[in-house]
Queue: 4 jobs
Job 1
Amino acid sequence: MNTRKTEYRFVCALVACCVPALSPSTAGQGSDARALFSEHCATCHGETGDGAGVTELDRPARSFKDGGFSFGNTPEALFRTLTNGIPGTPMPAFDSAIDADGRRALAAYVIELGPGLPPPPKNTVMVVGDRPRIVRGHLPPIAEGASAHPRGLLIGTTTGMTFEYRVDDVRLLGVRQGGFVDRRDWVGRGGAPLQPLGTVVYLFDGGNPGATFVIPGVPTIEGDLPPGDRGSLEAVLEGSWVRGDEAGLRYRLVDPDGTRIGRVEESARAVGTSVGAGFMRRFRFEGDAEATVRVRLCDTFPPEARVASFQSSVPAEASAAGRALGPTLWTIVRREERLFECIGIHNAMPTNEDTTLGGGMGTLLVPFTPGGSATAGVTILLTTEWSDAVRSAMLREVYGR
């Protein structure tokens, strides 16, 4: 059995639509929902929504007549799925292909094809509205073979994505899509684990990730570090925050001797394109000591997994819009058959020192200096194919150009 394939658990699509044209037409305001369904969905899901479309897919298309979608069958959930797509599946984001009114009308039409709306959620279920929500508590294992975490944290975003962390030593465990959380610790005597409701669409190291921050030249803490990295930093949670439609964490980095290296503020959000869906993590680093830190931003891949690598510049207006953080080094790797991971590591010029792109596949080298600061980030998109056309569409839609 392919261990990496087993660890990297992608779920079947809520809707397994074929990828739309790379130069999509924009739907006008008030577009007829039936016509939108016929144009964008019927080839995969069938004209009646029964899943019997004419497009050949690597998995059965969802039958809307059955209802009970993996990512929710409320109008809000379907609108979010149409807007952002589903990572690791043929379901793309339709944000640039169909306007917001058209997506709302299409979501309502899809519900009409099925058995109807689900019953109201239990009073213990937390729902994310127009602002992100953050919950702390005991997290059960995110996947088979993973560990439970008595100190866990969930960030639920307005796009329907949930970012799941352990926070005894801050590490992102995985990303979910769908509902937010059932807080069963609210009932009885309390103490029951949180029950995340979304389906896992991205999993780090099988749900047991190693340290995110590594510094050379200190005693070894973990034995599975890349060559040249001889010790890890502890990420000590200081707090969480919500600002408008963004949410994230603050934590400090401490070496094994107890020396405080610096502070990190991290946020995460969904990213959707017509050729694949995924997410972006942003980091702001503030230094307290002199050190060069290796930041691990994705799983470790063997060199033969690399399909392509290139660097792209970002227009100033794109960075100002918050779509990216600066010049980006992209690495495309093949995860398994018909699945590619596009890893874009981007950075802006820090206050005092340059942040070095690269440092190894999927890693970033950050020089910390007392009083210095830097910003950087990573975008991870999952696509079912890779070509020059996919590359062009990805860059155009991620950067807004």
Note: Residues 100-113 form the longest helix (14 residues).
Job 2
Amino acid sequence: MIRIKTYKPLRPGGKKRKRLALVFLLFLLTTQFLNVYGVQRFPKPEFESGYFQPETLQPAGRAEMLAIMDVFFLVLSLAIVTWLVLKKRSRTGVFWMSLASLAYFGFYRQGCVCSIGAIQNMTLALFDKSYVLPLSAIAFFILPLIVTLFFGRTFCAGVCPFGAMQDLVSFNPQKAGPKLNTVLGLIPYIYLGLAVLYAATGTDFIICRYDPFVGIFRFNASFGMFIFAGALLISGIFIARPYCRFLCPYGVLLNWVSRFSWKHLTITPAQCIQCRLCEDSCPYDAIDMPVTGKNPEIRTATLRKMILICLLIPFFTVLGGWTGSQLHETLAGVNGKVRLSRALLQPAQTTGQPESIEITAFKSSGKPVSQLYAETSLLLKKFYTGGWVLGCFLGLVFGITLAYRMVTTYKTDYTPNKGACFSCARCVDFCPVTLNNNTPKLT
């Protein structure tokens, strides 16, 4: 008979990795802080005294080669990380691969093109036929989803530079708890819905505008984005991957697709022996615990729950759609044409104030005001329809989330939650079971 001792594996090179991450974090924050408060050394050039700006030559060949190289490294990185997660089951390999992705996709390619921002490119291409969609944007949007459908979220594990940046500072992650995870987990759906709405109407690419890490990758973050990124990294010390879990809109799509993954990461390579060593190994609360102690619910109570769920989901969907339609003018206020029309329609509010640059530019363009108002009216109709769609989507998500909380799923083993699991392979280091003969590791 084999006796199993308490097994708590040390992360390979854990102390060295923490020191390396701390030095890296201090370096980033220091350089960004100095950049924000940097003083301009030379006055801006003056172009109003007969200056002729020469035609800019764009090296299209080099840009095309960079796009091909980006897609090549994306495919290669996805293949390597998937192999490390599913075959080698190596957390150390995933960690070093994430550093390589951070170096290339983050600092070398400066965070662009990225799968998260590609959501907006894909949306705009669907609603604006004149927009030319780059092939690299298609690849960065589609390829991680395809890999996730077959093998889980290995893209998040070691390819996404945003996740790698946050993994570096996860020194002492604490669990947030199921209730807080559920509430904060609704934010990415709101962010995704707004990003799609503003991209579909040609208003703005808000994911790129409010990207917290691109400014760090390019060493040109504004003061506001520096504070935002710094807050995320500092909170990431105690809450693992706050952006990935509670903000990332692309994570919503990966969550959906991963639930149907063909072959997903497993905590144990063989039969679970219920040692409970992996119980606290996941900093993302992505391990579903066994639920076997409760007796199965009686048929009447189960039927009542199902009826209530079937009533709640349509109710929240319609309520959300109506609420979104009522807020369409507020949502449209972000659009530049809508703001300009409001400024021209309400000149009394700007009496005594200098004329804005936008109004001056519009007047100098010679464009009729009636044409601007007609375009604005069309935009408001689009936002009204978009408000209905956005509200219905968020109401449906809220209803399904509430229904999921009401349903009890009975499990016998510790298993990764396919949707929430980042496939980072942390939990496999805590499992004492080996593949051969289900033999536990001994200490």
Note: The radius of gyration is 26 Å.
Job 3
Amino acid sequence: MLTLIYRHFMRRSRVYFAVIATLFLALVPRVTPVPHGEHLAQITAKDFITIHTRNTPTTYYEGRQGPTGFEYELMHRFADYLGVSLNLNASHHPESVLPAVRQQGDLGAAALPLQPDSPGIHYTRSIIQMQPLVVYRRGLNGINEPKNLVGLELGTLSEAGTSQSLLALQRDYPSLSWKESHELEVAELLARVEDGTLDAAIIFDHQFRLNRLFFPNVERGFLLGEPLSLTWAVPSGRGLGLLEAANQFLQELQGNGTLEQLVSRYFGHDDYLEYVGTRTFLAHLDERLPTYTELFKKAARDTGFDWKLLAAVGYQESHWDPDAVSPTGVRGLMMLTNPTAAEMGIADRTNPAQSIDGGARYLRSIKDRLPESITGNDRLYMAMAAYNVGLGHLYDARKITEMRGDNPDSWQDIRTALPLLQQREWHSQTRHGYARGGEPVIYVRNIRRYYEMIEYVERSRQQFFQLEKTQISDEPLLLFDIIPPVE
């Protein structure tokens, strides 16, 4: 009997509690929680992610084979990671990226420094550390400590993070003043140091390493302040799904070594082209190359190469000197041997038009003779190496690569095998024997760098020309806002 009474009471109680709970909830204002992955779900639904970035060498630019740049590599990989397409807005300067992320979404990737107090923004984990660096015009002596900056025409970029270091420094040196630009980018800032408009500038160390070859009159000064974290930005208030996905993606890239490889590829260039060599190259770029540019372009049209690549080969061979002669008898602008000239039907190796035409066709013939299994840049680099060392020695290096268990279709593995042709242990097992196998490795490396420099200078000239056309005054300092002393 007691059991039946208890069961009846519990059934009635559950009904009473349900009614009370319903009435209570009806009186409480409803707060709709933001779904954990609302923003990420929207990106998945529309099947693309919009990323706001900048058109700079360290972030994103159009290279010889399409879009490239350190952060572009990461953006593209992240879009693939999410399984969506990549939609870029690269029209930004540093100060316009965060407002675009807040108002439009989806993500900002533009060499952004971590600023924890930014309203409406969440930042990802750190991608790399950015160390502020003082650079100055060659000829100014003794720029080696903070007090030397007082009184200089000093510039930096607005909202890029470097001004934080200057503001901190101004507390110790109240008379310090500088100029900030909302319109320039790093290369344009360095150009103003180079031409004397500015005495010095504050940029990040990795930016200088990427640009230093193109501004030989700009010297490295000293590191300023503490490193800042390069991060990505996502809008807050729309769930944490996108932020967590980005952090997971970056963590995986760091864990498997991919991030380190990208940093090394873009910012870890060897300093084998020092300032003296760079100044000579840039002088020849202005004084010699214009004479032969149309010849390189014609040869490029006939052979399918980029004319700037052929020009880079010509510079590596002769410094664009049609009368160059080597101790072994190769001569002319493209340094053709007698047998090669005869094979290409070249009657006068010292004639620039014939030399460029013959060199381009010879490089094409080498590339065409390589096995079909070699593709892309691997094929191009091996053809260039064979132009230097001979096709027979390249095939010997392929044999050594196979013997070592590596990939004979990979330039990375071939360039490791080529120097072994100098060692009896290895060249004794090949058909063509000894070769100075280290030279083609340096040869290809130099041509690649010369090509980068020609391409960069050509692109920079166009950018600077466009910038000059849009300026409202001939006074370049009007592009800057002055940050005055505080004393």
Note: The chain has three domains: 38-126+232-267, 132-226+478-483, 278-443.
Job 4
Amino acid sequence: MAMKSQVEVPPASAKSTHNPSVVLLVLCAAAFMSSLDVFIVNVAFTDIGRDYHGSSLSELSWILNAYAIVFAALLVPLGRLADRYGRKAGFLIGLGLFTVSSAACAASPGLWWLVGFRVLQAAGAAALTPTSLGLLLNATAPERRARAVRIWATSGAVAAALGPVIGGLLVEAAWQWVFIVNVPVGVLAFIAALRRVPDSRDTAVSKTPDLLGSAVLALAIGALALGLVEGPDWGWGSGRTVAAFLVAAGAGLVFVRRMFRHPLPVIEPALLRVRAFAYSNLTALLFSVAFGAGLLSVILWMQDVWHYSSVKTGFAIAPGPLMVPLLAALSQRVAHRVPVGYLAAAGCALFAIGNILLLSSVGEHSHYASEILPGWLVGGAGVGLALPTILSAATADLPPARSATGSAIVNMSRQIGTVLGVSVLVALIGTPMSFARAHSAFQHGWWTIAGAGLLGAVAALGMTPRSRRA
């Protein structure tokens, strides 16, 4: 498939009236907020389950999975619709939907109402995330774009890491605050974007993106997650479990077929022929399986086995995220001397080693400094090396006209990986009633996480771009 050149159409007066620093702040704030919400809910699981009596871990997992599935499926097509009709309108619609649905999540009368509002929240996030990058590129001078994109990407990575910390502090008041906090931030960002962010669109985009393909992709991921989280209760050989996996396989095949036949598919096959881009997506998928499951596993261990409060859990998680900006800065300093694939591989391997340290040390009674902290610091260092490197390297060999689309696709891979990681962890943990069973279940979970991290390290070796733009 030929890759067309991109034609940006900004308003006539935009370049002379906007402040690039203000634009960067507003767009990074929105991206931070949407990324934060993927992970901030983890520490609220116990409190939400307590309010919605009788909810199992597999049911609660849909609070995370429903968001990530819809986010992944809509990220690319909503970005392309905004490219065609106007990115600022797409951004404002997405931000408005995200803000309103956040308030609705806080007011949910039951678990499945909450899951439904999380779906709407994810649709808003899927609209505002790619449009924020497109608007940022258009509003930034060419010589400053690389720095602006690094800040934008790092804001999302830091949000993912800090989510449990912020969530723990908010849940101390009430779990609803993990959603309410989005409302004032969203309103302020909406007003600032309306007044200060210049519009742009891409006149080369003249076709409607494959929205049906997005729905098929969501069906495939959702059916796979359903089979994984319900398999232990339904029975792995039961008709319902087998049917879920068959639906996932069938929908996956339909998605691949549409990918090659639709004029504007969710994933353009031509992009996957770019080696660095293909391996970056595979690495993002595998690393996110490990990261999504690893984050939830440590939180569940501290809350359900050691009986930590939400705020204590949040502070216990904090040292890992603090490693992220330190190692991200280090990776930027050495990226011109060390192939970025090696940096990402080192990060994935460190995350795997951190989980091996966890499984070899944790016991029935809380000894945080000796049992959780060492592995968590090593894992946090791995996140800091891997995640920003993957995001920045993925699009380095793509034509400039495909950078925004490529970024959306690699973020889609991250969300799919998160769904798979959470689903596999829930299937492995189940609802153990004794410490011995819980310890065995979590041991299996941490070995699986370590395996996904090591596979990510192998995949990362192939993602070093030929271009120096990474």
Note: The first helix runs from residue 14 to 17.
